[in-house]
Design brief:
The structure is a single chain. It is built from 12 helices and 21 strands. By secondary structure, the chain is of the alpha+beta class. Among the domains are: about 80 residues, no CATH class; about 80 residues, Periplasmic binding protein-like II (D-Maltodextrin-Binding Protein, domain 2, 3-Layer(aba) Sandwich), CATH 3.40.190.10; about 100 residues, ACT domain (Alpha-Beta Plaits, 2-Layer Sandwich). The strands form 5 sheets. Strands 5, 6, 7, 8, 9 and 15 form a 6-stranded mixed beta sheet that branches. It has a 5-stranded mixed beta sheet with strand order 12-11-13-10-14. It has a 4-stranded mixed beta sheet with strand order 2-1-4-3. It is globular. The two termini are about 30 Å apart. The structure holds 3-phenylpyruvic acid. 3-phenylpyruvic acid binds next to helix 4, strand 7, helix 7 and helix 9. It holds the Pfam family PDT. Its main location: plastid. InterPro entries: ACT-like_dom_sf (IPR045865), ACT_dom (IPR002912), Preph_deHydtase (IPR001086), Preph_deHydtase_CS (IPR018528).
């Protein structure tokens, strides 16, 4: 399928972030609280300010960027931790001992809201009306959603402190995993700090006055096309399908180019934003159509045990899939349920040659395994399971330990 790029955004929308991007000078304020009996640190924590600072730098999640300010005593003393495109980036650590806080930190203190009244900025791929924008709003209701033209840009927006979080769709109940996004998780160093599951309700959109009989093609995000394939056929739409970067971008493209032979699959909100008509409402092949998104941040959140947590890891092992059952038994023995397992090609080492003196040499494909399990890294059983996994693996990374989205959902009515 030919990939169409969404047109440049019209005046209805803010322009999406694009690469390359020069980061503005920023002052970052990193504020963290620490309580020795509730936080499990990799190393024991001393009482000196330096120890506290480095521990909090690892664990703090209340990371807030601010507009440049005239130097104050505090900013003059800030630790300069790097520069972004030639601009100094400073981090000012403000350590707040737990005992001085009026109440204990809750999970919401730790992940979503920035302090000092600043609005959380959440980067997503697509244009307004995309499902990723709705997912950002579900995870962080008062956030400022920042459209980006590529997932790569959304990741970089967080890495360069332009945004505080990125939202990334990783799998769908009908369409399966979004493999490219798994690869991106590994290529970048961001941490998963949350997840949301969003019921997805697709509409068939066309310009006002266009009828189904006029259509020569349907365009949308490949996942949306996959999720509506049977319904499109049932509607008699045996026309060309073309993949674009996001659903709302497809609607915008049809509108901006006045395409009367093309329909887009997108949300009802996209129809409203881009002046399109809904030809068919709810065209996903099954009403239980849910997409899971993960939220990414520069710093991990502190794992807890007082509510259900999930942990995502990725690993590889030298002996191919033959030791996979040993790795997975580390979870089974501890009654830790896996909620997801995904394999991807091991790009650094895609082929493994296995010689047999009698039969010759076989070449096996090498894989990376992504596993989600239902436990928090603050639980001893999860720590022990990972210690055991490490014995069998040549590479292991914890992508994040984060609260499970427990919000009940019912089949969407299209108001997402
Ligand atoms: O294109 C979008 O709107 C997205 O956010 C990606 C996507 C596509 C289809 C279903 C869920 C998410």
């Amino acid at each position: 399928m030919q990939a169409l790029l969404p047109p440049s955004t019209n005046n209805l929308t803010k322009p999406a972030l694009r690469l390359p991007r020069v980061a503005p000078p920023r002052l970052a304020v990193l504020k963290c609280a620490y309580r020795s009996d509730s936080v499990h640190l990799p190393n024991s924590v001393g009482s000196s300010r330096a120890d506290w600072q480095s521990s909090c730098a690892i664990l703090a999640s209340n990371v807030v960027s601010q507009q440049p300010q005239p130097p104050s005593d505090k900013s003059r003393n800030a630790d300069h931790v790097g520069s972004v495109n030639g601009h100094k980036t400073s981090v000012d650590l403000e350590i707040v001992p737990m005992e001085k806080l009026s109440s204990a930190l809750t999970i919401t203190d730790l992940s979503p809201a920035p302090m000092h009244g600043a609005q959380l900025r959440v980067a997503y791929q697509g244009v307004p009306g995309a499902y990723s924008e709705a997912a950002a709003g579900k995870a962080y209701p008062k956030c400022e959603a920042i459209p980006c033209d590529q997932f790569e840009v959304a990741f970089q927006a967080v890495e360069l402190w332009i945004a505080d979080r990125a939202v990334l769709p990783v799998e769908n109940s009908l369409g399966g995993s979004i493999h490219r996004n798994y690869d991106l998780l590994l290529r970048h160093r961001l941490h998963i700090v949350g997840e949301v599951q969003l019921p997805v309700h697709h509409c068939l959109l066309a310009l006002p006055g266009v009828r189904k009989e006029y259509l020569n093609r349907v365009i949308s995000h490949p996942q949306a096309l996959a999720q509506c394939e049977l319904t499109l056929t049932k509607l008699g739409l045996n026309v060309a399908r073309e993949a674009v970067d996001d659903t709302a971008g497809a609607a915008e493209f049809v509108a901006a180019n006045n395409l009367r032979d093309t329909a887009a699959i997108a949300s009802a909100r996209a129809a409203e934003l881009y002046g399109m008509e809904i030809l068919e409402n709810g065209i996903q092949d099954d009403s239980s159509n849910v997409t899971r998104f993960v939220m990414l941040a520069r710093e991990p959140i502190i794992p807890r045990t007082d509510r259900p947590f999930k942990t995502s890891i990725v690993f590889a092992h030298d002996k191919g899939t033959s030791v996979l059952f040993k790795v997975l038994s580390a979870f089974a023995f501890r009654n830790i349920s896996l909620t997801k397992i995904e394999s991807r090609p091991h790009r650094n080492r895609p082929i493994r040659l296995v010689s047999d003196s009698n039969e010759g040499t076989a070449s096996h494909f090498e894989y990376l395994f992504y596993v989600d399990f239902e436990a928090s890294m603050a639980e001893v059983r999860a720590q022990n399971a990972l210690a055991e996994v490490q014995e069998f693996t040549s590479f292991l990374r914890v992508l994040g330990s984060y609260p499970i989205d427990m919000t009940p959902w019912s089949p969407s009515r299209g108001d997402d």
